Amino acid sequence: MNQYQQLAVALERLESSMRAGDLWRQERPPEEAFKSAEPFCIDTMTLPQWLRFVFCARLRESIEHGSALPQQSQVAPAAELQLQGLSTGRRVPVLESLHDIDHVLNTGYLREQASS
């Protein structure tokens, strides 16, 4: 699989983990919220909103158009701080998916998955 395909797989995992943790169903922020200059739009959106409406949307658009992908990503560490209040069952799958996305963007490959 190429980097775009691996990223698509990782994004599907993120969406699935957010759906399972009831984090995907977010109200779309108003248009002005997207104009934030802060990292992760932290001043205008919740992290789940940013993940769904900015992060996933932009990466999917890049995949669809074959556009350049970010060369570096450190979303998982920021999410670890922002999602601390969630239960382990809701938080861990999302963080694992974000670590996968970071890894694909940073290295071009999905991380090796631990065998179950």
From TrEMBL:
<dbReference type="Pfam" id="PF04287">
    <property type="entry name" value="DUF446"/>
</dbReference>
<dbReference type="InterPro" id="IPR023376">
    <property type="entry name" value="YqcC-like_dom"/>
</dbReference>
<feature type="domain" description="YqcC-like">
    <location>
        <begin position="7"/>
        <end position="103"/>
    </location>
</feature>
<dbReference type="InterPro" id="IPR036814">
    <property type="entry name" value="YqcC-like_sf"/>
</dbReference>
<protein>
    <submittedName>
        <fullName>Uncharacterized protein YqcC (DUF446 family)</fullName>
    </submittedName>
</protein>
<dbReference type="GO" id="GO:0044010">
    <property type="term" value="P:single-species biofilm formation"/>
</dbReference>
<dbReference type="InterPro" id="IPR007384">
    <property type="entry name" value="UCP006257"/>
</dbReference>
